[in-house]
Design brief:
six-stranded parallel sheet, alpha/beta, LacI/GalR-like_sensor, transcription cis-regulatory region binding
Length: about 350
């Protein structure tokens, strides 16, 4: 079977990045004329053809949008989907949902097997540790717009919608400090994700501002589940110098940490303060209730879909980056008893 030429082949021949080839083929403003001409010449030489039915796709009339995300079983992503659906349905678009189960390999397989002739655009929240962007560049080079939300890629020109992870983390850690906690640990998400890095930086900067110690063993990277939170808290309790508070990357991890500490007879709040990030409904009903940074999941879903529809319907619509602020909600887990 004859192998189709891809933008990876063009990039290899010219010794430039796939991202540059993609932008040149889309004639974006940040590629100079000489580079664009070289790319077009090589594309013609290799007989490169976009991998879609040009007649059907160029008109963008399928009115189908693909949504690719890590999970559908947690509060945050189910709320994001609700926001996406509201905007999509109001504008006559259908949603086709793909779930990666937080697997980069599964994400790549989904992209490789997308029914690209029957989709007008993609909304994507990348899988944990998914740092490869070639497959997304290939899709965009073929004329399909992508908007990333929540978990976004850094080195790609595309619209992105997220919450203010840095300032949310900074405010949450500073809240712990102002309530008398001085030895604060951070149970973080996977290292490769942008928002993991931003929340980590917020934690570090808040600790640095108040001249508090940051110990390497107090920063633990793992997944996002309640079980991950339990395991992370167990590791913290094994430290010779134990923390007196924990800032968790999300509420599920925070609740897992709380369960572990309670099983050891440690009083949440009085002995160890805890703060999460999301405002999952469970954070309000657990005892003691969990202090958290509320994420505007519904707004993120709506805005992501609004931007994608603009990319679909407008000939020239430059990528935008939208950042929504979080909101500190103080509950029992971060308040020391007198």
């Amino acid at each position: 079977m004859k192998r189709f030429i891809t933008i990876k082949d063009i990039a290899r021949e010219l010794n430039i990045s796939v991202s540059t080839v993609s932008r040149a083929l889309r004639d974006t403003y940040d590629v100079n004329k000489e580079t664009r001409e070289r790319v077009l010449e090589m594309a013609a030489k290799l007989n490169y053809k976009p991998n879609f039915n040009a007649t059907g796709l160029a008109k963008r009339n399928s009115h189908n949008i693909a949504v690719i995300l890590p999970f559908i079983t947690n509060y945050y992503f189910s709320t994001v989907i609700t926001g996406i659906q509201e905007v999509a349905y109001e504008n006559g678009y259908n949603i086709v949902l793909y779930v990666t189960n937080d697997s980069p390999d599964r994400e790549l397989s989904i992209i490789d097997n997308l029914p690209i002739t029957s989709l007008d655009g993609l909304l994507v929240s990348v899988a944990s540790n998914s740092d490869a962007i070639d497959h997304f560049e290939e899709v965009m080079a073929n004329g399909i717009p992508i908007v990333f939300f929540d978990r976004v890629v850094n080195n790609m020109e595309a619209s992105k919608v997220m919450q203010d992870d840095y300032n949310g983390a900074f405010e949450g850690v500073e809240h712990l400090i102002n309530n008398g906690y001085k030895k604060i640990a951070h149970i973080a998400g996977p290292i490769g994700l942008t928002f993991t890095q931003n929340r980590l930086k917020g934690y570090i900067d808040a600790m640095t501002k108040h001249q508090l110690p940051i110990h390497e063993e107090w920063i633990i990277h793992s997944g996002f589940s309640q079980e991950d939170g339990k395991k992370d808290a167990e590791k913290l309790m094994e430290c010779k110098d134990k923390p007196d508070a924990i800032f968790a990357a999300n509420d599920r991890k925070a609740i897992g940490a709380m369960m572990l500490l309670k099983s050891k007879g440690i009083a949440i709040g009085k002995e160890i303060g805890i703060i999460g990030f999301t405002n999952d409904p469970s954070s309000e009903i657990i005892s003691p209730s969990l202090t958290t940074i509320a994420e505007p999941a519904l707004d993120i879903g709506r805005k992501s879909c609004e931007l994608l529809l603009k990319h679909i319907t407008k000939t020239y619509f430059h990528p935008q980056e939208v950042v929504f602020p979080g909101r500190l909600i103080v509950r029992e887990s971060s308040v020391k008893e007198s």
